[in-house]
Amino acid sequence: MKTICFGELMLRLAPEGYLRFSQADRFGAVFGGAEANVAVSLANFGTEAEFVTKLPQNDIAGAAINSLRRFGVGVSGIVRGGPRLGLYYLEKGASQRPSKVVYDRAGSSMALADPADFDWEKIFEGAGWFHFTGITPALGDNVAAITMVAAKTAKRMGLTVSADVNYRQNLWSREKAAKVIGELMPFVDVCITNDGQAKDVFGITPTANELFDGVLTPAGYTRIARELCGRYGFSKVAMTLRESISASDNNWAAMMYNGKDSVFSRKYAMHIVDRVGGGDGFGAGLIYALQSGKNDQDALEFAVAAGCLKHTIEGDYNLVSVSEVEQLAGGDGSGRVQR
C-alpha cells in the first residue's frame, strides 16, 4: 500500500557529540523532519512511500531530496520554489541535562506554501494511506489550510488517514494548537499521541483515581483514548508511554485502543544514542504493521520495537529493517554481536 507523508524536510545542524551550542566550533549536518522520517522508515520496511513538501530551487534542497531518494522514498510530489530550506539546531542532552532544539524555519519555502501548490487528487492517485503530524499546520495558517484540504481530500478518496499530534510549544501556543488540530481530527482514522498532549491539546486530564504515585494507570490511558475516540470518531488511538529517567535513559512502551479494547506493549529500558525521531519510528512501525494486517497487540509491539531501535541510531532517519524490528519485538534485546 502506498503511503503519502506531508510535512517539512529540514536541515539539522548539531554540535559534535554532546557539546553544547556555546562550545561548538563546527556542526554536523543531516536532513530530517517528522513526516520525512516516517516516509524513510516505511521505505526501509519495503513499502511504497511518497513524501510531499515544498523546497527551494537550490543545491541544498536538491541534497535534501537525494537523502530521501537514497532510501527509496518517492519525491514526485515535492514542489520547488520559495526562498529557503527550514533549519533546526540540536544540542544533545546527557544524564540530567536535557536536549535542546532551536528552530530556524520562519519564512521557509514550506512555511510560505500556497494551497494552489498541491494537487491532492493527483498526489493521492494509487495511494491507500495519508500521514501528517501536528507540526505541519503549526507552520502557519496557510499551511494549516493546506493540511485541511489534504486531509479532507484523502478522506473523500477513501484513504486511511493517520496523524501524530506532535505538539511543539516552540512553534505555537496550546490554544492555537487545540483549535487547529481539533478541526483536523474529524478527518483522521488513526491518532498517535500521549497523555501530555491529551492534556495540552485536547484538554483531557486524568482524575485522581487514575494516578498511582503520580503515574497514569492503564485504566487512565484507556479512558483518555476512549474519550478521544468518542469525540473525533477515530478507529484507533495509540499513545506512547515514555518514562524519562534522564536524558540518557528512558523507559519506553505504548498502548492502543480500538474503540472497544485496549492493548499494552512490553516496556523497554533504553540507553539513548539519539532521541530525535523516536516517535516517528513508532508511527512508521504502527502504519506498516496495520497495513500488514497484524492484530492490535502484534502491531503495537512492532511499533514500540521500531521506536526503541530509533533511539539507538544517529540522525533523524530510522535505518532499520523489518527483520531487525521483529527480532526485538520477539524478545531478543540482548544486543549481542551478530556473526
Topology:
Layout: E1 2-6, E2 10-15, E3 27-32, H1 34-44, E4 49-52, E5 54-55, H2 59-69, E6 79-80, E7 87-91, E8 100-104, H3 120-123, E9 127-133, H4 141-156, E10 160-164, H5 174-184, E11 190-193, H6 195-200, E12 211-212, E13 215-216, H7 218-232, E14 236-244, E15 249-257, E16 262-264, E17 268-271, H8 278-291, H9 296-310, H10 322-329
Parallel strand pairs: 1-4, 1-9, 2-7, 5-6, 9-10, 10-11, 11-14
Antiparallel strand pairs: 2-3, 7-8, 12-13, 14-15, 15-16, 15-17
Helix pairs in contact: 1-8, 8-9, 9-10
Can you tag this structure with a few keywords?
339 residues; alpha/beta
Tally the helices: 10
> Oligomeric status of the shown chains?
single chain
Indicate the structural class: alpha/beta
Fraction in helix: 25-40%
Query: Approximately how much beta-strand content do the residues carry?
Result: 15-25%
First-residue to last-residue Cα separation: 34 Å
Average of per-residue pLDDT values: 95
Number of strands: 17
Overall 3D shape: globular
Describe the sheet with the most strands.
Answer: 9 strands, mixed
The helix/strand order is EEEHEEHEEEHEHEHEHEEHEEEEHHH
Radius of gyration: 19 Å
Low-pLDDT segments = none
